[in-house]
Design goal:
transferase, 15% strand, formyl-coa transferase, domain 3, 20 helices, Rossmann fold, CoA-Trfase_fam_III, alpha/beta, 2 domains, 6-stranded parallel beta sheet, CoA-Trfase_III_dom_1_sf
């Protein structure tokens, strides 16, 4: 066992307990962030398969790659919420938790008897985070949503793709993953507020709201110009050079954000005359002469290999990158040196690689994340250690099929 695994400090959220009623991606990614920060996350799964993503291929020894990707460090307990005993058990668990996260459609948890008002009456300190496609209000409140739907409705899909081409879905499912960003931010803020008030709060996270918020300067550009920003492939709408440039054996990314970086590009490619060219003297002028700038740079870069360009631009401190595939990205020295890929022990698969926590804290190290749980792996231990149930009572719950 490595020194990291023997560390007792779970993280800054050590002592915080989360009851996780989420499934698929948006909700589980939010609960994952809290687990990464040291919270105890108890994932409640239904019988007959658990979280839907457990059935998403490809598999290894029956375990889904998809489920493994967003459920590390959690505990799994199987409860049948279609039974009165299952609902009672879920309510009892909620009285022992600081945070509850769910990502059912609005109204589902209330119909189950697990809505915010019901649980807040039992546990006034409970922070209740609801994550849904469109939030708890508005004309789309009750509509189903998936990542590509949110990308389309937010405008994000319209600006992704090559210039003049059809809009293209983002390769990363940001429409769902935005819930894993905004949900934890709101929960951490509510935990801070609870220190002063002693009370929890209902949090309403809309994935569409999150994607609208992610538009950033593109929204402001639309406000300023009265026009829709258009897809530009790897290029930037206002910064040049910025994007993909040809190399002898592939392509390289160059990102020139300021006049200072433009000077470095010219020096690296040994083209001092570009600095004297009035067409390229400012950010706005380079944008207006985009085709000429890109053609001149491309003529220089295609004479060298990607490795030669990387060496050159590193020497002149030009922001750049080779275009890596996922396997190469995971294997690159920077990622390895930061230990972003680690081995952990899975109950069914043995030693498996997982992505490590993306947030680090100076002065202390957390243990390697626990592997994603097999279905119901922690049912008995949670009932025994958290609720104090004895073996006889747990066995009866199993016979009644309340838990599995």
């Amino acid at each position: 066992m490595s020194p990291q695994q023997t560390q007792a400090w779970a993280g800054p959220l050590q002592g915080i307990r989360v009851l996780d009623f989420t499934r698929v991606l948006a909700g589980p990614s939010a609960a994952l962030a809290l687990a990464d920060l040291g919270a105890e996350v108890i994932k409640v799964e239904p019988p007959d398969g658990g979280d839907e993503t457990r059935s998403f291929p490809p598999f290894r020894e029956g375990e889904s790659h998809y489920f493994l990707s967003v459920n590390r460090g959690k505990k799994s307990i199987v409860i049948d919420l279609k039974t009165a005993a299952g609902i009672a058990l879920a309510r009892e668990l909620a009285t022992h938790c600081d945070v509850l996260i769910e990502n059912y459609r609005p109204g589902v948890m209330a119909r189950l008897g697990l809505g915010h008002e019901t649980l807040a009456a039992l546990n006034p300190r409970l922070i209740y985070c609801s994550i849904s496609g469109f939030g708890q209000t508005g004309p789309l409140r009750d509509q189903p949503s998936f990542d590509i739907v949110l990308q389309a409705l937010s405008g994000a899909l319209s600006v992704n793709g090559e210039a003049g081409g059809a809009p293209t879905k983002l390769g990363i499912p940001l429409g769902d993953l935005v819930g894993g960003i905004n949900g934890p931010i709101a929960i951490l803020a509510a935990l801070h507020e609870r220190h002063a008030t002693g009370r929890g709060r209902l949090i309403d996270i809309s994935l569409l709201d999150g994607m609208i918020g992610m538009l950033g300067y593109l929204a402001q550009l639309a406000f300023f110009t009265g026009q829709d920003p258009q897809p530009r492939g790897c290029e930037h709408p206002n910064l040049v050079p910025y994007g993909r440039f040809p190399a002898r054996d592939g392509a390289i990314i160059i990102a020139c954000l300021t006049n200072g970086f433009w000077k470095r590009v010219c020096e690296a490619l040994d083209r001092p005359e570009w600095l004297r060219d009035e067409r390229f003297a400012s950010i706005a002028q380079r944008r207006d002469h985009r085709e000429q700038v890109n053609a001149l740079i491309g003529a220089c870069t295609r004479e060298r290999t990607v490795a030669q360009l990387c060496e050159l631009f590193t020497r002149f401190e030009v922001p750049h990158a080779p275009i890596l595939g996922v396997q190469a990205a995971l294997a690159q020295p920077q990622v390895r040196s930061r230990e972003m890929v680690v081995q952990t022990q899975h109950a069914a698969l043995g030693s498996i690689p997982v992505i490590n926590r993306p947030i680090r804290f100076s002065g202390a190290s957390q243990p390697i994340p626990a592997a994603p749980p097999v279905l119901g792996e922690h049912t008995d231990s949670v009932l025994r250690e958290l609720l104090g149930y004895d073996a006889q009572r747990i066995a009866q719950l199993r016979r009644d099929k309340t838990v599995a």
